[in-house]
Amino acid sequence: MRRLAVIGHPVAHSRSPAMHSAALAELGLAGEWSYEAIDIAPDELEERVREMPEQGFVGVNVTVPHKGAALLIADSLSETAREIGAANTLSFVDGEIRADNTDASGILQALPEQPRGRRALVLGAGGAARAVVWALVREGAEVDVWNRTALRSRHLCEELGGTPVEVPDATGYRLIVNSTSVGLGGEDAFVALPLSADSFAPGQTVADLVYGTERSQLLVAAEERGATVVDGIEVLVRQGALSLEIWTGREPPLDVMEKAAREGL
Ligand code: ATR
């Protein structure tokens, strides 16, 4: 059996096992490949990851809070993972741990239009925001970054590009991406973030990386105001598909993955 997994802490809520298992079945690989969720505490991460190849693991997805630490354990890094400073995909190949980051391409593929030349507002300065900012800056968007803790967004922009903003006028952006964890714990997004329902309008795209319910408070409001919305599952599916392609070399069945990821939400 070739084993795959998502590792995180906590990880029980992850839709990745359902999504990848459905993809492996669709590709006719279910008898040879498996995908599970494994909860690993931060202080055990390195030891547990190093044991994985001998336990039959071929690769893992890495989620909160291990994306930064995963990079340090790896023997080789893709350019994307190195520049973002976080890895969401590890592959165990020829005795080596390889790190990659498919979050950046995942968000770009989930967007309805090329961000080149567009004004974008990214909310957050954690690992998820780093991937989004890196991707949008590289694609030639004009990126502003807001974070609750302004020092973090300033540091992020010094490293990755983009402009830190403390009081954004959200109506002026073609693209708004929530890459904070606001919404996960049931917070009121319009209190925690510099947005209101009036921030949204037709012609705009609003993406929310948080998934947990079918439509977040932000996306419900954005949709009501006629904006195009991209939810966290769409980004999850794209990044997962890119990881699966790295491990198996096969073209992932996106529709099957999306359906499986949404079931049980
Ligand atoms: P991840 O790797 O998933 O991005 P993270 O590094 O813990 O996770 O980042 C969480 C992000 O959500 C941060 O931008 C955090 O803001 P701070 O840097 O100020 O902590 C943001 N965040 C979490 N809870 C928030 C809240 N209640 N209001 C505003 N921002 C919040």
Describe this structure in words.
By secondary structure, the protein is an alpha/beta fold. Helices cover 38% and strands 21% of the residues. It is built from eleven helices and twelve strands. It has helices at 16-26, 45-51, 67-73, 79-84, 103-110, 127-138, 150-160, 189-192, 217-224, 232-248, 254-262, and strands at residues 2-8, 33-39, 57-62, 76-77, 89-93, 96-100, 119-123, 142-146, 163-164, 175-178, 205-208, 228-230. The strands form two sheets. It has a six-stranded mixed sheet, sandwiched between helices. It has a six-stranded parallel sheet with strand order 9-8-7-10-11-12, sandwiched between helices. Helix 1 runs antiparallel to helix 11 (254-262), helix 5 (103-110) packs across helix 6 (127-138) and helix 10 crosses helix 11. The protein is globular, with a radius of gyration of 18 Å. The two termini are 29 Å apart. The model has no long low-confidence stretch (mean pLDDT 96).
